[in-house]
Amino acid sequence: MLSALSFLIHGKNIEKQEHNLKELEILYSINKNRPVRDANGNRFTSDELTEDLSKRITTLNLEAFRPVVFGVFEKLAEQDDALHYFVLVSTYRLTDEKFRESLEDLTLKQKLMTKIDGEFRYRLYSKPIEQNNIPQLAWDITPVLQNREVTEKDSPVSSNGHSIIKPVDEWGLISQEFRSILNCEELIQSAREGQSIEFFHLDQITFYKNLLDMHRGVSSDLFQLDSDNHFYQSKPCRVEEWNLTTTRTVHQKHIFLANQLSEVVRHLKDDFVFETSNSMRLLIQKYLIDEQYIFSDYFDSLLECSTNLQYRTIVETLPSLNLQSTSNRFEVCDEIFEIVSAHYHVIREMNEIVRRINDYSPIILNEISFIGSQSAPQFYSRQMWRRMNVSLIHSIVNKLAEMLTTPDAELMELLTDAGDAKMIKDPSIWQRLNPLTMESSQCIDEGLANRVADLIIGYQFFIKDKKNKSQKSDESTFGISDIQDAEELELFAKTCNFEKIIDDILSDVDMSSTDGNLDELSTCINKLLEQVPTKTIVEKYSQIVLEKSVRFFEFLKTFFTSAYIHLKSKNILSQATLDMLEREKMHKKGYDSEFLKTVGYDMKSTMEDSLLTVNPPEPLNVFVTTGVTDIYSQVFTVLNMLHTALDAVIETKNSETLKHEPRLRYAFFHMNTTVFAIRKNMLSLIEASYETFMKTLDFKKPSVNRSSHQLLNVCYRAHRKFIRDVAGALMLTSKRGTTGRVIRLMVSSVTQASKACLSGDAVGADRYYQQFQTNLLIFLDQCRLDHTRYPLYRSLEIGSDEADGRRSLNSSYSDDLSCRSY
Amino acid sequence: MSGTGALMTVHVGQCGNQLAQAFWKSMVDEHGINERGQTTHEDDMNDKKDLLFYQADDDHYVPRAVLVDLEPRVINGMMQSPNFSNLFNTDNIFLSDHGGGAGNNWASGYCQGQEVQEKIMDIIIREAENTDNLDGILFTHSVSGGTGSGTGSLLLERLREAFPKKVIQTYSVFANSDTSQTTDVVVHPYNWVLSMQRLIEQPDHVVVLDNAALHRLAAGKFKTDTPTFDHINSLVARIMSTSTAMYRFNSPVCPSIRYLDLAPFPPMHFIQSAISPVVDPNENFTRKTSVADVTRFLLKPTSMMVSTASRARPNDCMLSAYMFLQGQIEAHTIMSAEQNVDFAIRRPPFYMLKPLRMMHAPLSPYVRPQYKVSGLLLNNSTSVAPLFESLLSKYDKLRSKKAFIDKFEKIDNFSLDMMDEAMHIVQDLLDEYKAVVQKDYLTRGL
Q: Does the pLDDT at position A588 exceed 70?
């Protein structure tokens, strides 16, 4: 027995065997006395001690050593009950540090454990060193064997029954013990109230449970709801060793917070709607409900009553609080408070948002939630914002996907009506037609937002146009394939394949990742645009519109610069003559019959020189605003007036009046050359602008590799410039309308001179010629204001040259033109 | 009257019909019409085929042309060529029954014409009435032979009578040769004087085509020492084609021949022409043309296609001129060119205006142009007078010797008074040319 005991404690270390007898004595004492007792003085059995050790190993975080320790005990239990009990008690008495140190040290020495990177690991299949079936201990119990204290019985704790307490000591004074009882808070309170008081004395777990329940809006014995649904503490309470005051202090701020939270939650419930057209509202409602569940699940998980948590994945990412530990109860309470407060603040924000939901667009909400997820002070609220952010990204992407593939999607959820294209910076061609914009934010830059908005509007126009065209089968604007494209896209959007694409895109947004990226939304949208074939369709459509636009411009230019030539009546246009334009089958004259229909007569116009209107079908109408039409109309009128004058002069050519009047002949020649030159200059300037315009529109050049859609914008700007140039060519810009009036005066004197001439009134003709000259001078005065174009008209100046009619003194035709630069 | 009307062509005599051949060949090409009158290209919106063609019931295009000759050789030859056999309306062809021609005698042509004029006028009037809106008649003939000058003169009289308000523009081939090599007609000065009277009195514009100058140009530019009529006619066809391009290809600047105001002081309506560049079509064209050098060339007095161009006098004045530039030209190039050439032009002293109008004439959308820039100048200048003086002096020489006068005298209904009258009228024209360069032209006689 002696050697077995010695081997057990010291192994084969012979030197220490001198204490053998003493140890044997202790062995006997321990087995005899069973010194480890509970509060009532009951002895611990070996099983109870084993259980205690097991807990101790867990608490000391020595799980790795469990197989070694229990291997030894199992062996001992098999071999020798006395030894087994002795070791249990000795180990029980051993301090935690000594136990840990010796265990770590000896197990390594005995090669039962390995230490890798500071971490202890059990060596598989290793067994304790044994001698005669007695194992050597893998930890050192010698420190407790130094004296006999180990064998001393634990004294039972005296119960505090009233009978035991002695209120007065032997000196007749109130005893120490009694004094402390009298000092006790509960007693004082009871004395103050004059009656006995009831209070809860809760253990830690129950306390936490009640606390967490309250935050979840669940009442308990401790925290009850009053008639206003406010929590209050039903009875005084103390938790473990906390006294009533401490507990109350802790409770107070929790109750306050819980009431705030429940207030907000109640508000939310009141505002809750089941049906609304505002999908953002629905989204936030769903989010709020989910958040409530997460909040609740989280507390369940903390209380370890989590059998089936709905949001386990989310909850697991949240910090776990050790509710068991007694040492840091204040800390845990504070942490709970922090979490609830974080939850409360986010919920309160949401409540505000729900109340004014119409002020928030998904994009703004997304930005808010992104900022929240980055900058909220508590981890919990950052997580909440992050979840909001993710669900918004999902929602936005889904909505966009719908808008880009479905003809009747609700656009206004993401797009806003700017009212006028002028309000949009750098609007695209589609935005000019339908001034919708998408908001930009930190998360989605303006360029992308515009691109998306633009694509959506473009797609809508395509659909609209397609529908119109499919009703009229004679139009060949759309190839069959385009219509098929659109329909296929619509069908495609309803397949699971499409859903998969969207899911793939969204799978990049990791809900559980704690920090989102600023460009997450942009990335998703960009991916969506890449994956959805709408871009190609809109591009194709743009191509068609582009080609049509170029034809349209050509038509506008030819029509307004030459259509008057084909008019039979030279009078100012009227509805009748315009109808005639069509009836006369102007398209036979080369005008596009499709566009010819778009030219109309402005019945309301009071200005004589803006009588024509152009109303092309969408989307071509983007090019002809009222201002533009006005200029085209004025081009028509001014050129028509000049043409009329020219016609009148020509009529006089064979007139008898001129036969013997070389002066009048010259006068008419002068009028002819002047009117001809003005008209030719105007036409040439328009032509020059048109050439520049068409050069800009020459998209077939290989160097141009922009999308048709971008080209449409180029087209728009080029046309605007063309119109400005045309207005300049007709000098409509400098003094609006003045040129028209001067020309009208000139024209009328020319016409009257011609009439006089035809009726044989040479004097009258001459008088009108004088008038014409005066008007010409006025016209030239006006031209002089226009520095760039005046050189064209300088040659019309009357009498500016030398008397012999030339400036050069060289012979009739100068051969030295070669030295001139052109 | 407004809008853009149609043009009709009347071709008289051997020369006139040869010009018809060259002209219509280029017209069918430029308007994308094949030898059967069918279109060969998709219609271009600027191509106004109906200006010179009308559409038959089966929609094929038929030239609005009337071909007249007193002898069948040229027209028959033309009708047998695959290019034209199915193109023209055979009802529009007039060939004299006896087919002997006019024997290079104006009087013969004129008097024979009197016998058949009603038939010819019937054709012309029918053709004119088939058109909604006839603006003018292009007339090609020569003034040195018999039919073109004689019958041509008669027809001009009748045309003016029938169409007092239409523009009649003749392309008249003049023969002026000191060596008499280019013409075998010794009496051409007689024929010329007699025709000249009608050219002064009837048409609105006479484009003077001087055979000798054309020969010289062809010989100089084409790689041949003996240019054929085909060479020369191709030059004339180009003049005719370019001068009508504005109307044929829908230019709003000058939409119709009515707007051509080349003759402010009739009867000074004799138009000289110049074209640039001229190269042999079989040669590779290596020069780079530009508006500047085309303009420069066209405005040189020596570029005028009259044989007396080198005799230009310092006080010659431009009365009115149109310069048509074709090719890849930007509108502003012409505008700036126009401002620059202004200095180089001499005009009558009383002119306070600029007689030259430069414009961009459209090209056929179907034919690839030979040049980047080409041009035609139609110039009504007093510098044409020396040609008439030269021809008149030749006439005087013959007349004073009474040479070959019997050939004329023997024709019935012709008297020498007609010749003398014509001579006086030509003389008056020459006086007018002298007067117009004077300061007091407008106030003369007041």
A: no
Which CATH architecture group holds A540-786?
Up-down Bundle (1.20)
Is beta strand A415-417 parallel, antiparallel or unpaired with respect to B134-142? Answer: unpaired
Question: Can you give the CATH number for the domain in which B121 is found?
Answer: 3.40.50.1440
Residues B81 and B131 in one domain: yes
B2 CA to chain A: closest CA distance, Å? Answer: 6
Instruction: For chain A, give the longest Cα–Cα distance.
Output: 166
Res. A161: pLDDT tops 60: no
User: Which residues in chain B are contacts of A669 at CB distance < 8 A?
Assistant: 261, 264-265, 320, 353
| Position B53 in a domain | yes
What is this structure's pTM? 0.73
Question: The tokens 């016609």 sit on which residue?
Answer: A647
Hey, are the CB atoms on A817 and B340 less than 8 Å from each other? yes
| Banded pLDDT at A587 (limits 50, 70, 90) | low
What is the model's pLDDT at position A820? 34
Taking the Cβ of residue B334 and every Cβ of chain A, the question of whether any pair is shorter than 8 Å is answered with yes
Domain boundary among B227, B244, B266: B266
Token pair 């935005």 is found at A431
Is B164's CB within 8 Å of A654's CB? Answer: yes
Of B1, B299, B301, Cβ closest to residue A817:
B299
For chain A, the residue count is 822
How do beta strands B270-276 and B6-12 pair? unpaired
In sequence order, what DSSP letters do the residues of B149-200 get, joined into one string? IIIHHHHHHHHHHH-TTSEEEEEEEE---SS--S---TTHHHHHHHHHHHHH
pLDDT average per 10 residues of sequence, chain B (446 residues) = 76 92 92 89 84 90 93 89 88 85 88 91 92 90 90 94 92 74 73 93 92 83 74 88 91 87 90 87 73 89 84 86 91 84 82 88 88 92 91 90 86 87 93 90 76
Q: Do B399 and B302 belong together in one domain?
A: no
Instruction: Judge: A591–B2 Cβ closer than 8 Å, yes or no.
Output: no
B360, A684: Cβ pair inside 8 Å? yes
* Dihedral sign, Cα of residue A421, residue A427, residue A428, residue A431: negative
A808:B291 CB<8 A:
no
Q: Is residue B240 part of a domain?
A: yes
Same domain (yes/no): B222, B335: no
Q: Which of B350, B368, B384 is the last residue of a domain?
A: B384
Across chain A, mean pLDDT equals 78
Same domain, B436 and B408: yes
Residues B12 and B160 in one domain: yes
Smallest Cα distance from B160 to chain A, Å: 12
Dist. CA A219–CA A210, nearest whole Å:
8
Residue of A130 and A599 predicted with greater confidence = A130
How close does chain B come to A589, measured CA to CA in Å?
7
Q: Is B362 on the interface with A (CB under 8 A)?
A: no
Q: What is the pLDDT of residue B179?
A: 53
Domain residues for B212?
6-266
For chain A, the structural domain boundaries read 1-146, 386-466, 540-786
User: Do B110 and B251 fall within a single domain?
Assistant: yes
Query: Quick one: B241 and B281 in the same domain?
Result: no
- Check if the beta carbon of residue A322 is closer than 8 Å to that of residue A204: no
> Considering the domain boundaries, does residue B1 fall inside one?
no
Tally of structural domains, chain B:
3
Which of A663, A817, A818 should be substituted to probe chain B, the one whose Cβ sees the most B Cβ atoms within 10 Å? Answer: A817
Residue B365 lies in a domain: yes
Write down the residue that tokens 């070669």 correspond to: A818
Q: Residue A250: which of A186, A332, A183 has the closest Cα?
A: A332
CATH of the domain at B316: 3.30.1330.20
- Do residues B279 and B409 both lie within one domain? no
pLDDT confidence of residue B221 = 75
| Phi, psi dihedral angles at A131 (to 5 degrees) | -140, 125
